[in-house]
Amino acid sequence: MGIHDGHRSRMKQEFLQGGLTHFSEPRALELLLFYSRMQGDVNPTAHALLDAFGSLAGVLDADPQELMSVPGVGENTAVLLKLIPALAAKYLASRTSAETIIRNSGDLRDLFAPYFFGARNELSFLACFDSKLKLLGVRKISEGGPNETNIGPRQIATAALSYNASAVVLAHNHPSGLASPSDDDISTTRYLFQVLRGLGIVLYDHVILADDDMVSMRDSGYFMVF
To answer: What pTM does this model have?
Structure first.
């Protein structure tokens, strides 16, 4: 066993015994890189990535081509790095039970947060419920750029009808701003409220997420004027 093999073995055991609590960002990234470069010292590559992108989050958010511009980073490493946030989002979403019943906006935050985990663009999702607000399913409606996404009434109506939903909740994110609704968000919500009401479906809420914050338009009083 070479010097690097012993180092790798010790780091793996440290992680298995205590998780990442006591790992710095360079060491955590180094541990991850063991699985794309099976031999040799990956510590310089971990530091080069952090120098290039500023933080562990910056590394995981970087585009694959940007990652591969860093010396020592090939396609395998880029795929592994991009897989981490994508897999984490899938993991969090898979923990959402089909038995979920919405009682308040906190439940909506718990429901939707995994779907926006690590998102760099604006996304929108529709959660569909029965008459008792029991979750029937969640469907992605759109993905746009960093500052906008097109939320189309046709896609929303189609998704709601496909689940035979009695009520729906729309969610979208503001990845580069605050969770407060814009004028366009308010006008879009008003229009969707009326369209869905014509189909016998209640637009129960429209929530907006940004970082660790979420605003419920229902709780904020916007629905009272619809």
So the answer is: 0.67
Q: What is the mean pLDDT of the chain?
A: 90
Q: Residue 182 gets which letter from DSSP?
A: P
Strand 213-216 versus strand 135-143 pairing type = unpaired
Contact (Cβ atoms closer than 8 angstroms) between residue 121 and residue 149 = yes
C-alpha torsion 134→212→192→141, nearest 10: -80
Backbone φ and ψ for 30, nearest 5 degrees, come out as -60, -45
For residue 2, what pLDDT band results from cuts at 50, 70 and 90? low
Burial class (CB in 10 A: 0-12, 13-18, 19+), 66: middle
Q: How are beta strands 202-210 and 213-216 bridged, if at all?
A: antiparallel
Other CB atoms closer than 10 Å to residue 215's CB: what's the count? 20
